[in-house]
Design goal:
Number of strands: 17
Strand order of the largest sheet: 3-2-1-4-5-6-7-8-17
Distance between the termini: 17 Å
Number of helices: 16
Helix content: 25-40%
Radius of gyration: 24 Å
Strand content: 15-25%
Structural class: alpha/beta
Length: 563
């Protein structure tokens, strides 16, 4: 790790540092002797209006307390402005030691609600902004051989939550953080915190959830927010300052590529999705028969319990025997009430295999142009309904970014490059989900949705996780009218489209496959499987807000890192 000269003051940038958690972290860093730059355009909670200059600023409070600070009005959505600011700071002060990215806005989006403009605005700030911060900071830190970046995700991005664009963005932030941790430059760390506090953004989100529950006739009680949150139990933003500053400091430099929940008095590691069940598909004579056995016997039970039931007596007999991809004439394919399905794809090989698998089950398939945007998605499904009647299902399989020639291993620059365009790709996926929800609501009928994401690249992997996070909220958001599935295809279409198509057809045709709604399904060239949802793997309750000396040792133990 590069060393900081004893004579040089450490430099930290805190985006969203004008108030809330960002201000708390900035002020704590100032108290600890850092030169702090708060980056905040000072806009309204929804980002649509510029606020008047406050009488007192975070930078002003830091300097009044004897520290060193300045304020910048740059926005995280302006990558050029961030690069110029970070380079300027590095030139003036001899380095950039930490960046804490807390900037955010809130707008009302869910699986079934919210305008395309609101979706793009939230994704652009929370996900696009994080990418801009990383692209501006990492080259400077890589050249210096030192530095710490602390992003911000949210429980709405790893718990089941109907927070629409916010959930998708925060899951992608977590996914990007986990991936970067495996390839950051020497001496540089990238972590993310998942904070909860009584901020303006949280208060607004809870109130919005309360109003939505009231309009639906539900009683919200004290848990009006997503995930059962209650304002009475939340810490003040200032309580998170010490732990946030610790996570951005050299003291936490042993940790990389991790997501940590912080709640003022406790901290927990959030584990990334991991394979729970894997089932062979390569050389499998009858994948239909295999799926009939392993969906209820392994995948659904693992999804329900978030753990495998393997490790005991073998659970399956000779399920890999018989003719390949049996035709309905053999009597082995499940009967289905599914009659009509829209196939939305710009991936011809995959679309062809999906259509064939569904037609083998007597499902009429309608090809739909894979145009982007909410409006085009709605028009595409409306055109089918007008011509052929209501749909029972929609399959969405849109292309992603092209894999780099990385031999399976990506460097940090390639990881970032792979995420360019992810905001628009998630927007497009969400547009088709919205169209499906509107179709189900408008026709007053149930509808099945399967989104197959190209997950071969780091950006595709993050997008696939965002898709799974969105699918988890479909049933609740649509009052049970839409059942959504998410599949990450992690091999070239020509190698895995057959298995993916059989899985898609099984999810749609088998009534017992509903247990996999919202699951994180994956298909590779020779196998398919199920990943866990992100979850806490160990917590430390320390009371807060100050960080005790023993906390570092316990966190190393939880993370499995030797002192």
């Amino acid at each position: 790790m590069g060393l900081v000269s004893a004579a040089r003051q450490k430099v930290a940038v805190v985006t969203g540092g004008g108030g809330g958690i960002g201000a708390a972290v900035a002020e704590q860093l100032g108290l600890e002797g850092w030169f702090v730059v708060t980056v905040d355009p000072l806009v309204s909670l929804d980002g649509s209006a510029t606020l008047p200059e406050p009488l007192e600023t975070t930078a002003g409070r830091i300097t009044a307390a004897g520290g060193s600070a300045r304020a910048s009005s740059a926005s995280v959505t302006d990558g050029k402005a961030l690069r110029e600011l970070f380079n300027e700071l590095s030139d003036e002060h001899g380095g950039l030691d930490a960046v804490v990215n807390v900037a955010g806005i809130t707008r009302p989006t869910t699986f079934a609600r919210g305008s395309e403009e609101d979706w793009l605005a939230v994704l652009s700030v929370h996900l696009g902004g994080y990418l801009n911060v990383l692209e501006a900071a990492l080259p400077i830190m890589a050249a210096a051989g030192r530095g710490h970046i602390l992003g911000v995700t949210s429980g709405s991005g790893w718990r089941s939550a109907d927070a629409g664009a916010y959930s998708c963005a925060k899951r992608a932030v977590a996914a990007l953080t986990w991936q970067l941790g495996r390839c950051t430059p020497a001496g540089v760390t990238v972590n993310a915190m998942s904070p909860i506090a009584e901020t303006r953004m949280v208060t607004e989100a809870l109130e919005r959830a309360r109003r939505a529950a009231a309009s639906a006739g539900a009683t919200s009680g004290n848990n009006a927010g997503t995930g059962g949150l209650s304002l009475a139990s939340l810490p003040a933003p200032g309580d998170l300052g010490p732990i946030g500053a610790y996570l951005a400091s050299d003291r936490f430099g042993w940790c990389n590529g991790r997501v940590l929940f912080i709640g003022g008095s406790e901290v927990a590691f959030i584990d990334e999705p991991r394979l729970l069940e894997v089932v062979r598909t390569g050389g499998t004579p009858s994948l239909a028969r295999v799926l009939d056995a392993v969906v209820p016997g392994a995948l659904s039970t693992a999804e329900a319990g978030q753990g495998t039931k393997g490790g005991g007596n073998p659970r399956f007999g000779a399920i890999f025997d018989g003719p390949m991809f049996e035709h309905p004439a053999s009597g082995t394919l499940s009967a289905t009430s599914l009659r009509s399905c829209a196939v939305v794809s710009d991936r011809p090989a995959l679309a062809s295999r999906v259509t064939a698998a569904l037609e083998a089950r007597s499902v009429v398939c309608h090809a739909v142009e894979a145009d982007g945007g909410f409006g085009n998605a709605a028009k595409g499904l409306e055109a089918i309904a007008d011509a052929s009647g209501p749909l029972d299902a929609v399959v969405v399989a849109l292309s992603g970014d092209a894999p780099a020639d990385a031999g399976g291993e990506y460097e940090w620059k390639q990881v970032l490059a792979s995420h360019r365009g992810i905001v628009e790709r998630i927007r497009n996926d969400a547009g088709w989900a919205r169209a499906a929800a509107d179709h189900a609501r408008g026709k007053d009928r149930s509808l099945l949705l399967v989104t197959v994401t190209d997950g071969r690249t780091p950006g595709g992997h993050s997008r696939a996780q965002a898709s799974a996070q969105l699918a988890r909220s479909a049933a609740a958001s649509t009052k049970g009218k839409v059942t959504a599935f998410a599949v990450s295809l992690e091999a070239p279409d020509e190698q895995a489209s057959g298995a993916a198509a059989e899985l898609v057809a099984h999810l749609l045709a088998d009534p017992d496959a509903g247990g996999l709604a919202g699951a994180e399904l994956v298909v590779d060239s020779d196998w398919l499987g199920l990943r866990s949802h992100p979850r806490p793997i160990g917590s430390a309750v320390y009371g807060g807000p100050s960080v005790p000396g023993w906390l570092d040792r316990t966190l190393r133990d939880i993370a499995g890192v030797q002192s």
